[in-house]
Amino acid sequence: MTALLSREEIEPVLTGSRFHQFLGIRLEEINDQSITIRLPYNELFYTSADGYIHGGILATVIDIAGYFAVFSRLNQPVPTVDLKIDYLRPGRAGDLLFTATVVKLGRTVSIADIVATDVSGKQIAIGRGLFSSKQE
Amino acid sequence: MTALLSREEIEPVLTGSRFHQFLGIRLEEINDQSITIRLPYNELFYTSADGYIHGGILATVIDIAGYFAVFSRLNQPVPTVDLKIDYLRPGRAGDLLFTATVVKLGRTVSIADIVATDVSGKQIAIGRGLFSSKQE
Amino acid sequence: MTALLSREEIEPVLTGSRFHQFLGIRLEEINDQSITIRLPYNELFYTSADGYIHGGILATVIDIAGYFAVFSRLNQPVPTVDLKIDYLRPGRAGDLLFTATVVKLGRTVSIADIVATDVSGKQIAIGRGLFSSKQE
Amino acid sequence: MTALLSREEIEPVLTGSRFHQFLGIRLEEINDQSITIRLPYNELFYTSADGYIHGGILATVIDIAGYFAVFSRLNQPVPTVDLKIDYLRPGRAGDLLFTATVVKLGRTVSIADIVATDVSGKQIAIGRGLFSSKQE
């Protein structure tokens, strides 16, 4: 399942919105199997109580990674329909990587699996997202 | 299932972290059935492409609302274990309300249902969260 | 959101397949808000170890109830896309009721919430299902 | 993550309940990474309308496969807490294989990923299950 879009075509869309710029996310890698997004360390995203990254930030970038995995194969808007996140363990402070793989490209709904890992390579959260891929 | 904590006890925890202050969330209402959190309008959270609020922001505040529904009954940290979000329809720009109801208070895991509504009262997303409520 | 189909129209579809006949499910009630399906007690569905009903049977009838909630409003096949089940507590041996409510009727995907209760009225499991409702 | 239990120890538990005997499921393979369960073809499980296997049967065996993946590593009852199924495509009539991999072994909750494939090797459904693994 080759990506339809190249890095050069995906990057401006990924970093084009102010909210994504605020997050600081960058396209780390794209290949035939998956797409990886980097979330640089930002102290704001960590809870003061325990130094762990906020679950909402993980959910946000998991959503984005899944979206772009599907988008890179279809080159059309693929609004998230349903998103499930499982939080595995607290992550170390530092950059995080989000790797998304397309599980199904469907005429109605497409599915992507997303894994979030911290700098030590430990999986800290996994997600599964359904994205609307209706051909207009 | 009465809340264990009062508004006065919950508010400082809800607004105590820099990330929650950044979001601008406020405790709107708490009663025996549910807790409601308000997310004031912030242009940053809307995508430039279509003027719709970013799904990650919805996921983030859905997570927070569910967390505080369970927290208000147990008065202990209740880390999110699993979160499912279904996006129902785009919302209008404006303040959003997130109402969370506890479905189950368990010795291992507790469950909350969360509904996000826009200013017109339309449901724009629903969530179901599992929170670790193991008594130490 | 009124049901399109009457009890007389739904019942033959619900009990028309051999698998549904094997389960013994019956249409208990249908009204403008919801549809309720009864699963009569069957010793086979209970695990010998602990006398609790098998989670797979709960998942099966939760799926069916959600399907028929959406089907009754659209009168077209609505294959299940995604199903989430949360098991709340073990149920008492006896008939079970599964009440399904449509949360969203969409042009691509529709959503139903399902609650399974035992004879004592206790909720034993909840489900949320996404059903393909693409108009052909 | 080596399995704690051998094939000889798992098989009698898997096939010990009347409901599992009714399904006809058998332990196909167990290795350090995963456990695979076979569901032999049974006409009863297929819907008369379209010849497709009933989604409830898929959910049932996905649940069982995930349960036994976690059980084989912990050797204690691990009741299902939460189960999510995504239906990918209709399967061909025939035996089905369900392969479950443990994603996380936790002190409170463990997670397994399950893939259901038909005889042609096509993935027809995927599941993610949370199982209670509280040490008593």
Describe the structure.
The structure is a homotetramer of 136-residue chains. Chain A has helices spanning 7-14, 18-23, 55-74; strands at 26-30, 34-39, 80-87, 96-104, 109-117, 123-132. By secondary structure, chain A is α+β, with helices and mostly antiparallel strands. Chain A has a single domain (7-132), classed as Hotdog Thioesterase (Thiol Ester Dehydrase, Chain A), CATH 3.10.129.10. A six-stranded antiparallel β-sheet of chain A has the order 1-2-4-5-6-3, covered by helices on one side. In chain A, strand 1 (26-30) and strand 2 (34-39) form a beta hairpin. Chains in contact: A-B, A-C, A-D, B-C, B-D, C-D. Chains A, B, C, D: It comes from Paenibacillus terreus. Chains A, B, C, D: It holds the Pfam family 4HBT.
Mean pLDDT over the residues of chain A: 93
Going by CATH, the homologous superfamily of chain A would be Hotdog Thioesterase
Chains forming the largest contact:
A-B, 31 and 31 residues
Q: Treating each run of at least 4 consecutive H or I residues as one helix, how many helices of chain A? A: 3
Strand order of the largest sheet of chain A: 1-2-4-5-6-3
CATH topology of chain A: the name is: Thiol Ester Dehydrase, Chain A
Proportion in helices of chain A? 25-40%
Instruction: Quote the distance from N terminus to C terminus of chain A.
Output: 21 Å
Broad shape of chain A? globular
What's the count of strands of chain A?
6
Order of helices and strands of chain A: HHEEHEEEE
CATH class of chain A: Alpha Beta
**What structural class do the secondary elements of chain A suggest?**
alpha+beta
Domain count of chain A: the total is 1
Rg estimate of chain A, integer Å: 14 Å
Q: What is the level-2 CATH architecture name of chain A?
A: Roll
Q: What's the main sheet of chain A like?
A: 6 strands, antiparallel
Note the quaternary state here.
homotetramer
Runs of chain A with pLDDT <50, length 5+? none
